[in-house]
C-alpha cells in the first residue's frame, strides 16, 4: 500500500492526514494550540506550539500505518505569518499572524515608498496589514534589536518543513502573500526589497508547490514516526492547497472555504488584477498558473467567538437547529463580521464587528443566525469582485470547517444564487497538501492526475430563488452599513489609541 501525508498548519490547530492514492483517509489527527492577543487587534502564536502539535499528530497517524509506505509529505499553512530565526535557527519572537492588524502605519509607509501602482504591478495588491512585508517593517521600527538578530524569514508551514528537514524553502503561492514576491516572474522582487530596506538574503528559495523541497531528517524521524529520507514537498498556502484538495485547478472552477477566515477563490491561467486591490492574485499551486481570491477576516472565527462567549454549552449542530427555525434576515438583525478588521472589499484594519437592528425580541438564536448571514454577505462581496475580474465561474465547491454545516452551505448557495458542491468531508487543504506530497514523491505524474484520481464530490446545494431575492435585499443594507460606519470605525480606533488599549 502506498500512502500520502498532508500537514495543515491552521490558525487554531494542526491537522495531519494520511490518504491512499485514491483520496481515502487512512489516518488523521488534529491538535489545537492557542492564539495570543497581547493587545487589541494583535494576533500571535508560538511556532513551538505548531511543531509540538505536528509531532503529536504525526506520531498518532504513523502508529496506524506503515510509515515506510508514505511516498511523500505535503504542507499547507496559514499564510503571511512572520517567523524570524536567528543565526542558530532559534525563533526570535512569537510569529505575527495573518489576522494581526497592528501595521496600518507601516502599510501607509510601504505604499509611499514603493508606490501603490508599482505594488499592484508587482504583487497585485496595495500594502495590507495581513501581508508579511508590513510585519517585517513593524519589527524593523519597533523591535530593531530583534530585526538585527534575524538571519532567516519563514512562513508558518515552511518553519515546520524546516524542522522536519533542516532545509530552508518556501513555495510560490505562499511567497505571493508576503508582498515581496513578483508574481509575474515568480521570484523575489529585488526592487521591493531595496525600497523597503529588507535584506533579500533573509528570504529563502521559492519552489513550485509540487516540487520536492527536502527529506525527513534522522532527528525528525525520531520525533514524528516518519521514515528518515521521506520526500517533503514545497507545499502551498492554505487556500492554494485547498484548491488542489477540491480539484479547482482549471479555469472556471472556484471554491468558497469557511475556516477561521473565509475565502472565495477562482483558478486562472493568467494573472487577473483588480485596480482597487480589493482581491488578491497569487501564484497557484499548479506550476505556471494563478488564482484570484477575496478574503473576509473573521468567518468561522465569528461563529467560534459567538459560541465560546454566549453558548459554550451547545454544539454548532444544536445552534444550527435553533437558527433554522428563523426566517431569512434573522427578523431584522444584521451582523458585520469585522472582528479583525476586513480585507475584501474594504481593506480596512479599523473596522469592527457590529450587530445592527438589535431589539428586545431577539434571542441568542437570532444573533447566531445573523452571524452566519453576515459572513455570507461578506463572502458575497468577494464573490462579486472575483466573478467580475477573473474567468467566468461555472462550478463552486465548498470546503473548510464551516462547510460541514448543511445550513450554512445552503445559505451560501441562496446568497450567491449559485449551486454549490460540498467538499468539506473529503477535500480541502489537508488532502491538497497530501496530493502535493504525492506529486513530489512520484506517486502521480502531475496534479491533474492526482486530482482526477483522488478528489471526490459531496452533496449539492441548489439556490432557492425566493430566498436569494430576500437575502439580496438584506445584503444591500449590509453593504450600506459599512459606508455609514467607516469614519466611526476610525474614530473608535483613535479613541482606543488615546486610551492605550489599541495598536
TrEMBL record:
InterPro entries: ATPase_NBD, Carb_kinase_FGGY, Carb_kinase_FGGY_CS, FGGY_C, FGGY_Carb_Kinase, FGGY_N, Xylulokinase. GO terms for biological process: D-xylose metabolic process; xylulose catabolic process. The record marks 8 as: Important for activity. Its EC number is 2.7.1.17. Residues 256-440 form the Carbohydrate kinase FGGY C-terminal domain. The keyword Zinc-finger does not apply. One of its GO terms (molecular function) is ATP binding. The active site is at residue 238. Belongs to the FGGY kinase family. This is Xylulose kinase. It comes from Candidatus Egerieisoma faecipullorum. The gene is xylB.
Amino acid at each position: 500500500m502506498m500512502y500520502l501525508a498532508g500537514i495543515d498548519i491552521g490558525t487554531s490547530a494542526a491537522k495531519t492526514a494520511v490518504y491512499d492514492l485514491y483520496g481515502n483517509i487512512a489516518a488523521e489527527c488534529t491538535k489545537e494550540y492557542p492564539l495570543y492577543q497581547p493587545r487589541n487587534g494583535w494576533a500571535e502564536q508560538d511556532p513551538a506550539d505548531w511543531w509540538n502539535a505536528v509531532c503529536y499528530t504525526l506520531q498518532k497517524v504513523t502508529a496506524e500505518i506503515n510509515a515506510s509506505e508514505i511516498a511523500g509529505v505535503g504542507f499547507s499553512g496559514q499564510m503571511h505569518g512572520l517567523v524570524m530565526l536567528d543565526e542558530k535557527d532559534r525563533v526570535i519572537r512569537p510569529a505575527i499572524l495573518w489576522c494581526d492588524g497592528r501595521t496600518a502605519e507601516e502599510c501607509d509607509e510601504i505604499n509611499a515608498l514603493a508606490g501603490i501602482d508599482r505594488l499592484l504591478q508587482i504583487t497585485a495588491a496595495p500594502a495590507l496589514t495581513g501581508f508579511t512585508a508590513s510585519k517585517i517593517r513593524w519589527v524593523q521600527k519597533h523591535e530593531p534589536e530583534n530585526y538585527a538578530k534575524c538571519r532567516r524569514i519563514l512562513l508558518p508551514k515552511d518553519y515546520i518543513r524546516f524542522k522536519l528537514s533542516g532545509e530552508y524553502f518556501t513555495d510560490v503561492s505562499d511567497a505571493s502573500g508576503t508582498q515581496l514576491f513578483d508574481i509575474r516572474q515568480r521570484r523575489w522582487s529585488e526592487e521591493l526589497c531595496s525600497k523597503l530596506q529588507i535584506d533579500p538574503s533573509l528570504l529563502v528559495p521559492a519552489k513550485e508547490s509540487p516540487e520536492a523541497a527536502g527529506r525527513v531528517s534522522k532527528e525528525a524521524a525520531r520525533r514524528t514516526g516518519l521514515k528518515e529520507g521521506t520526500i517533503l514537498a514545497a507545499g502551498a498556502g492554505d487556500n492554494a492547497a485547498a484548491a488542489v484538495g477540491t480539484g479547482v485547478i482549471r479555469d472556471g472552477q472556484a471554491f468558497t472555504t469557511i475556516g477561521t477566515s473565509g475565502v472565495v477563490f477562482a483558478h486562472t491561467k493568467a494573472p487577473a488584477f483588480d485596480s482597487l486591490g480589493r482581491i488578491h492574485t497569487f501564484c497557484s499551486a499548479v506550476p505556471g498558473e494563478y488564482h484570484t481570491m477575496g478574503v473576509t477576516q473573521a468567518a468561522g472565527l465569528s461563529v467560534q467567538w459567538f459560541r465560546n462567549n454566549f453558548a459554550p454549552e451547545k454544539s454548532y449542530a444544536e445552534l444550527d437547529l435553533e437558527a433554522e427555525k428563523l426566517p431569512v434576515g434573522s427578523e431584522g438583525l444584521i451582523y458585520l463580521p469585522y472582528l479583525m478588521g476586513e480585507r475584501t472589499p474594504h481593506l480596512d484594519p479599523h473596522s469592527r464587528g457590529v450587530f445592527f437592528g438589535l431589539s428586545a425580541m431577539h434571542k441568542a438564536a437570532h444573533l447566531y443566525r445573523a452571524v452566519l448571514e453576515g459572513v455570507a454577505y461578506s463572502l458575497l462581496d468577494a464573490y462579486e469582485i472575483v466573478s467580475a475580474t477573473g474567468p467566468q465561474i461555472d462550478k463552486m465547491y465548498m470546503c473548510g470547517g464551516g462547510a460541514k454545516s448543511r445550513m450554512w452551505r445552503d445559505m451560501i448557495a441562496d446568497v450567491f444564487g449559485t449551486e454549490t458542491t460540498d467538499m468539506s468531508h473529503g477535500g480541502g487543504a489537508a488532502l491538497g497538501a497530501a496530493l502535493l506530497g504525492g506529486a513530489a514523491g512520484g506517486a502521480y505524474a502531475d496534479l491533474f492526475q492526482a486530482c482526477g484520481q483522488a478528489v471526490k464530490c459531496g452533496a449539492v446545494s441548489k439556490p432557492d430563488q425566493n430566498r436569494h431575492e430576500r437575502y439580496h435585499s438584506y445584503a444591500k443594507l449590509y453593504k450600506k452599513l459599512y459606508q455609514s460606519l467607516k469614519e466611526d470605525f476610525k474614530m473608535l480606533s483613535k479613541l482606543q489609541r488615546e486610551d492605550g488599549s489599541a495598536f
